[in-house]
Amino acid sequence: MITEYHRAKDINEALEWLAQPGMHPLGGGTWLNRPHQEAFGVVDLQELGLNFIRKTGNNLEFGAVTTLQQLVEAPDCPVALKQALRIDFGLNIRNAATVAGALITGDGRSSFTTTMLALDAKLVITGKNSPGTIGLGEFLPIRPGGLITEISIPLNVNCAFEMVARSPKDKPIVCACVVRWPSGRTRLALGGFGKNPILAMDGTEPDGIDAAARSAFYESGDEWASAEYRINIAATLARRCLESL
Ligand SMILES: Cc1cc2nc3c(=O)[nH]c(=O)nc-3n(C[C@H](O)[C@H](O)[C@H](O)COP(=O)(O)OP(=O)(O)OC[C@H]3O[C@@H](n4cnc5c(N)ncnc54)[C@H](O)[C@@H]3O)c2cc1C
What we know:
single chain; Uridine Diphospho-n-acetylenolpyruvylglucosamine Reductase, domain 3; Enolase-like, domain 1; five-stranded antiparallel beta sheet
């Protein structure tokens, strides 16, 4: 339950409030406003100027407070990322939820987080003992505290997303995103299972993507699907992504 609210005027003020015990950054509030057992305070980020989308060289940079719908509507946003966002969140949630809030709360079944992982998204994190700029792949397993201010993804890439779910708008049982750079560098991220999506491959070329997909889901059995099923679907979706690039 939110028991304290502060609207910071700049990043330094936000960091000062966040240094107090029991304080959390407030994005769109769609997760923080849910019923929680413990009492906590929030620091509203909406006046920090972190609501922007800009193209810088080969990168798309966006502020942490950018809403998911702003990203969907951004002309430069990769089509595969828009597709993943529409699967993960309905329009009302996309209009309120922020990119940072979605990455903090996204789990292994999140199409958005899986696609951002394949894109090798970089997060800028500020605050005492914060890591500075960190790749999403390093961020997810540890989810260090601190204030996310900015996120960037590459634009000089080809990106494809595929998924299998019970229905077209349901969370995936298996999803795959393949991103290829002009150099041949190819990343495969798999979602649909566990606490975080899995980076199955980051190679200098696409060879071996089938084996990488299979081995990443070696122990992926749960109440939704057996590991054997996920292994076969992951390999099929990874191949489909690659063929569509
Ligand atoms: C009706 C409903 C349906 C939903 N459906 C889905 C769904 O289908 N799929 C799904 O994945 N989620 C869903 N959610 C959950 C929620 O929408 C997501 O978790 C959302 O992306 C959170 O974003 P937010 O900006 O609202 O985060 P907030 O609620 O503001 O914050 C979430 C977390 O992120 C932290 N945070 C926010 N901004 C920053 C920052 N800049 N730096 C550091 N930490 C930060 C907060 O402190 C908090 O811990 C749903 C929620 C509701 C209410």
